[in-house]
Amino acid sequence: MNKRLLGVISLLCFFLLAACQQQATPEDRLAEYIGEWNDGNFAEMYNTYLNQGTKDAYSTEEFVERQVKLQEDLGIKNVEVSYKKPAEETEWDPEKPADFPILVKMETLAGPVEFEKTLTLLHETKEEEENWFVEWDPSFIFPQLEAGDNIRVSRTEAARGEITDRNNNGIAVNGSGFDIGIVPKLFTDESKKEELAKLLGITTEFIDSQLGQSWVQPDYFVPIAKAAKSEEKLLKKVDEIQGVTYQGTDMREYPYGEALAHLSGYIGGITAEQLEERKAEGYTANDFIGRQGLELLLEDRLRGKDGMKIFIEKAAEGAEPITVAETPAADGETVKLTIDAELQKTAYAAMEGEPGASAAVDPETGETLALVSSPGFDPNEFMLGISGDRYKELEEDPRNPLFNRFAARYAPGSTIKPITAAIGMEAGTLNPSEGLEIEGKTWQKDESWGDYRVSRLHPEAPNPIDLNKALVYSDNIYFARQALEMGKETFAEGLKNFGFGEDMKYPYGMKAPQISNEGTIGSEGQLADTSFGQGQMLTNILHLASMYEPFITNGTMYKPTLFLDEEDKQVWKEGLVSAENAETLRKGMRNVVVDGYAQSANLKSVPLAGKTGTAELKASKDEEGAENGFFVAYNSKNPDFILAMMVEGVEDNGGSDYVAGFAAKVFEE
């Protein structure tokens, strides 16, 4: 083949290829256009596929920028555009438009949108290129949308779910409070601005910015701060400043205030970090969100889903708006707790602001009736946005009201002795009627213990010391010797049977109780210490209350629950103590109150039974440290709840009997 013929063939191939490229069908072009549409490539759609008439009618701003912004503002995602394929034998006439039925689907923040349209392609020549081009108008965004119309979004706020106690008493409720504000024409004394700013914990610059808003008029009420109904002193002070007043407004309320603060927690304005994490869930910069306690823990249940509506605001005068998509508001869930808020309030008040914790449980169900951390704080104050000075004041308070003590762990001291006795009796190593001869204030097994000795507080206790006397006199030596008789493995296994070393799987997130840092008992000295609740043993106040359940139920310990919709009477541990041994311990704990050193709890009106305890917190082995006092008690005639209470620093207040007196007030009420 000569070169001339080869050149002719190449030229023919070039023209044939060009002809093929020019002969793209309208369906080919439609498929490409829809692909770009589904991917949100609006610039490519505009530049490559729109016909000249459309481009003359709509600028890139009206086509590209508007649709990009709508996707963001309306939360448009998962766009799916499809078309009905024409018959294979269809012939396309360049002189006639090519029509295709299309289906458009998408998800928006107001719900799904779906519509059908007919898309038309026209054959045109543009810049010496012949091809099929799309004819477009705004109805391909939403069917009823026309040139000049606006797309709007409205939001209907959902009510946050409430938290109530078992008796429907509100713990965190949608109540009311006050907007504090200024009427500009009446606020004429500039010198009062500094005073007002200090009262409200804001700056004078913030006051100026609020008064400087474009909508403000001389006789308008301009909100500058919020106040809870409980802040009566603050409201009275601001009302004394001329031109400053307050108006009622909807507000989250915590009716039990400090008494339930650490349990309820509070809501607050969403932080930038939280907004970044949860923006996809519909949160906005103006939203409130759970910041602590159950308000935080239950955020997903309490938070409602705001209603959203996307609608078209027609340009034509008098035309009714057209709804594109709408999702009604769904209020948050109301969560009922097993807590008895009045009992909790009583327990909190009984502690008189002393640093400590309390827990009350129903021994027959495992339901939590009270969870107190004392002292508390006012969650209403935090919800409104606490000032830096006020937060510093709370932070520097030596009683540490911001620390949640009911979730923390403490050495339980002698309150563990009934558990030690139960383990020994069930193991067959402790005979409750058999007495031990114990002399002196201290004791050690033999010289192998070196300097370590077990001390007891009441060496005057008459021999022989049986279990009843050991409980009444809270004799450390008796329980140390009984633990040695059991042995490390038996005692450690018995403690594990009572829940030590195990995650309680409690919804609030309690610190897990431990036998020791390693979870085992390594020496005889540690065994002795652990038998009376010292050493490295730690537990939380709720677990401590729960461990006394088997003495009332004859062996069963229930999983502690917090929500009323949870199944109650979930057996956590069983067979912990026989009915006979439980009866022995009940009698012994009644005698602790009647004959022992919990006389502040020896009430005529309520026959209490229980066990006191102190746990010494030593700075070093040669120094005496502070003492935490404990009392665990129940009504021996009607044990409808077990109360465990701990107060820090009782060494100068009479020890654990000081705590028994506080606990007795709860039962009296």
TrEMBL record:
Signal peptide feature range: 1-24
Keywords: Membrane, Signal
Localization (cell): Membrane
InterPro entries in the record: Beta-lactam/transpept, Beta-lactam/transpept-like, MecA_N, NTF2-like_dom_sf, PBP_dimer, PBP_dimer_sf, PCN-bd_Tpept
Domain named Penicillin-binding protein dimerisation: residues: 156-319
Domain (Penicillin-binding protein transpeptidase): residue spans on this chain: 359-667
The keyword Disulfide bond belongs to this UniProt entry's keyword annotation: no
Top-level taxon of the source organism: Bacteria
Sequence ranges assigned to domain NTF2-like N-terminal transpeptidase in this UniProt record: 25-148
Family, similarity comment: Belongs to the transpeptidase family.
UniProt-recorded name of the protein: Penicillin-binding transpeptidase domain-containing protein
Organism: Planococcus shixiaomingii
